[in-house]
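Annotated sample (chain length 70).
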Amino acid sequence: MASTEIIFEVTEAAEGGYDARALGHSIFTQGKDWTDLKAMVRDAVLCHFDTDARPKIIRLHLVKDEAMAV
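Output written by the structure step:
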């Protein structure tokens, strides 16, 4: 039975763009900007799952790591 959604943890790549890793699945992709990343994530999900097992919703969770001096 297909899961209704899949969640990707998205981080900003050191060299620019974004990296996305699916939680609970072996899916990783990158995009040069937010629009490109969304297309790459969608393509990765379509390639990874059979039609009847494909999640209906893709969630992108942007994680931003910032350090501040005290």
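Annotation: The CA atoms of residues 27 and 44 lie 7 Å apart.
Annotation: The chain has a mean pLDDT of 94.
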